[in-house]
Amino acid sequence: MSFFLRLQPWALFLLTFVLPFGVMMGGSMALILLQLQLPIFFAIYSCVMLLMLGSLFGWLWALGAYLTRLLPAGTVASVRWLHTALTIPGLYILLILAVLPRGFSTTGSSFQPAWALAIVPLHLLSMACIFYSLYYVARALRSVELQRQAQFSECVGEFFLLWFYPVGIWFIQPRINQLADRTVS
Question: Which three-class secondary structure state does DSSP give residue 174?
Answer without folding.
Answer: helix
